[in-house]
């Protein structure tokens, strides 16, 4: 820090040198009264001094001449009073001449000492001698004053007494200068940090004061609006920024979030908010980004999430239905998507519980966050716990070096889907309950909690209420996850949905098998509508996939459906079903024909045929040898 003291008179300079030595501070001290002091101050300003110290009229002139902060060596009543020594009972008029900040309060001293005092306030250095001369002409013989007042009196042959400052006043001013310099330094650092942040964020930023004049205009704003900051700072925003609506925010005090704005050929998305202090609008701030840049970032994030499998692929538009029951359930789920509470999806196997979970996520405010799915029935308790909550290095034998992040942490700002939650071990349920309540996770082997912002969607095909009664599922956890409840009806209760599901599945698997299958006959569709589908949509898809594979014509018929369904699992008493179920072939024959069909469809590719048949390659080879 560079601090300097300009002394208007020699005694003050000598005392300042003593104070410097006693305090052990590094300051520059020079002599300079009034205009001479101003010259010194201006030189110091060029040298980059942080604070300047001076006194009296010299202080006043320096303060007006430079932009550097100036600290005053203050003159107090005791400093003035010392110069009245020996004047008690003096009958003549005593003049007190000097700058206002030096002689302030002299009248009170006159009243206390019962003296006749004339106050001569000097405002400019060049008229000071004239004012003192006029006082002499009025018969004043003694002048008490600052440097200009006392010097002018001495030159006119009057008795002059200089109001001096003590060492305490000098030391106080020096300490204040250092405190001020420290504060200025800290403020400069803070300002530079803010400026760096403002200039290097990806958003453009414009701030205006209450009059709409631009006070902040960062580097990104320069790029977007193609105008340098020097041409816009201090200008009214509507004069220099096209299509701006910041003045509306100043007027109404209402934020404008996510507004589209066109700048030349560039489309930007803008957020505008008022700056309110003590219920008064004192300015407004706009942040904005190019839409193309946002889309690029979003694409990058989604690609990374996709690479890790943490993306919800489906939305409500992907759910095919025709029934009133499904329409009601979807409307309910769409309302739940707008909330952030835990959702419990109940439904039989194959009804599409994960499809609903992904759709809820993609319709929620968390849609740009991760969607993490975990099947609670697929992993043993210890492995499931480490997957959900993660672990630190050395937590157990075989723990990965550096530890592992749990799925709850990976789902931060997004959604975690706990499928088959009814299969979660009872011991792990207590830990899950704690995470839901505290919104924090503790990795295995760790002693600290990690905050997570995650929405939980759980699903089950079990009767959780019955499991609670039997002590297989925690009652407190049940109430925590069953805040919003969705019950997906089984396919047998909404047979009209087959009218849209079957054509869709035929088209899907015909394309996959590269077959020209156009659809299904009404007779075959009637047969499909007689089944109960314990496996629901998943079972229906398996039936259609096999039927497409077996079909030799453009339309799936009853004969193709025959090979795709087990007569014992469906309504064998139905007339339509009885028409084709009477001619049952031996199982070996059906298997041989089915394998033959699979090989025909795959062009003799053993591996692909085995994959479609759901068996491994070795098993298929063994069955072919038997034939």
From TrEMBL:
SMART domains cross-referenced by the UniProt entry: AAA, PAS
GO molecular function: ATP binding; phosphorelay response regulator activity; sequence-specific DNA binding
Biological processes annotated in GO: regulation of DNA-templated transcription
Swiss-Prot/TrEMBL keywords: ATP-binding, DNA-binding, Nucleotide-binding, Transcription, Transcription regulation
UniProt keyword Ribosomal protein, yes or no: no
Domain Sigma-54 factor interaction: 319-549
Keyword Amino-acid biosynthesis included in the entry's annotation: no
Official protein name in the record: Transcriptional regulator containing PAS, AAA-type ATPase, and DNA-binding Fis domains
Record organism: Caldanaerovirga acetigignens
